[in-house]
Design goal:
This protein has 2 domains: 4-165, Rossmann fold, CATH 3.40.50.720; 170-299, Orthogonal Bundle (N-(1-d-carboxylethyl)-l-norvaline Dehydrogenase, domain 2), CATH 1.10.1040. It has helices at residues 12-23, 35-43, 52-58, 69-77, 100-112, 126-130, 142-147, 149-155, 167-195, 200-207, 215-226, 236-252, 258-272, 283-290, 295-299, and strands spanning 4-8, 27-31, 47-48, 61-64, 91-94, 116-119, 122-123, 135-138, 158-161. By secondary structure, it is of the alpha/beta class. A 6-stranded parallel β-sheet has the order 3-2-1-4-5-6, with helices on both faces. Strands 7-8-9 form a 3-stranded mixed β-sheet. It is elongated.
Length: 300
């Protein structure tokens, strides 16, 4: 396979996707404003280019994975953005979790330049991305989605086409609503066990394959068990970005999310306690602080 795929945004998720696409036989060209990210791409055998526009002129299918709305606006419509690239018909697979109005504005810019934007957020963490354990939540032009089938297969295990542009983002908001709750529920269960005098390892080993388990308990439980929060695959800072998006989306629908709202406060507390750049599993440490638990002191 000699098709070249473009990637704009070579962070935790983008790096994992680039690696998996290279292993699937694709050539990869990409851009990131951070020099270390471009260096990572070249270490994987990819080609680092000078701008999003250059990526769109080198590849007919481009994956975009970005941390904030302003970045998407610039990547698509900026002076060196994808919409400025020569040619027409390029497909951009937009994988970020961002406000829907920002994505729709980017869609308008792309359509005016004769290019296609797909709204395809990803359900899964950076750690899951490494093993292709991702679910593509696709929406937009169905024919373009079908044309990207081999690319999706090269970086994910499941691909869902959900209909018109925007439905992918809506489904991602719903998925992240559950992740927000399940992660805190896992932490609360771990803290309940610790308060009862049980070894965190015993709590995890017993519950991970029980009726009470969840994907978040299975994935984040080992980090909570080991107090391993400093090599994040998803940070509390990024979770708070998603929480703000979901809050606004639900408010527009006049939809009360009371359980989710309670869980969200634990992430805000984590940021206040200086844990913003730690893995989201650190909500367990937040609840331990709330309950006066100091595992290191107890072990000494």
């Amino acid at each position: 396979m000699d098709q070249r795929i473009g990637i704009v945004g070579i962070g935790i998720m983008g790096t994992a996707m680039a690696r998996n696409l290279r292993q699937a036989g694709f050539a990869v060209a990409g851009f990131d404003p951070v020099p270390a990210a471009r260096a990572r791409l070249e270490e994987l055998g990819g080609q680092a280019l000078a701008s999003p526009r250059a990526v769109a002129e080198a590849a007919s299918i481009i994956i975009v994975s970005l941390p904030k709305a302003e970045a998407l606006t610039e990547v698509i419509g900026g002076a060196d953005g994808i919409a400025q690239a020569t040619g027409t018909g390029q497909i951009v697979i937009e994988c970020s979790t961002l406000p829907l109005d920002i994505k729709r504005a980017a869609l308008d810019v792309m359509e005016k330049s004769g290019k296609i934007l797909l709204d395809c957020p990803i359900s899964g963490t950076g750690a899951q991305a490494v093993t292709k354990d991702l679910v593509i939540l696709g929406s937009g032009d169905e024919a373009a989605f079908v044309r990207c089938a081999a690319v999706f297969a090269g970086m994910s295990r499941v691909q869902r086409y959900l209909g018109p542009f925007g439905r992918g983002s809506i489904m991602k908001y719903i998925a992240n609503h559950l992740v927000t709750i399940h992660n805190v529920a896992a932490a609360e269960a771990m803290v309940l066990g610790i308060k009862a005098g049980m070894d965190p390892a015993l709590v995890y080993d017993t519950l991970a394959d029980s009726a009470g388990t969840s994907r978040m308990f299975q994935m984040r439980g080992p980090l909570m068990r080991d107090e391993n929060y400093d090599v994040p695959t998803a940070t509390i800072r990024m979770q708070l970005k998603d929480i703000s998006i979901i809050d606004a989306f639900a408010a527009d629908l006049n939809c009360a999310l009371s359980v989710y709202a309670a869980a969200s406060q634990v992430y805000h507390a984590g940021a206040a306690l200086g844990r913003k750049e730690q893995d989201t599993a650190a909500v367990c440490a937040v609840l331990e602080t709330l309950h006066g638990i100091d595992r290191k002191k107890s072990a000494s």
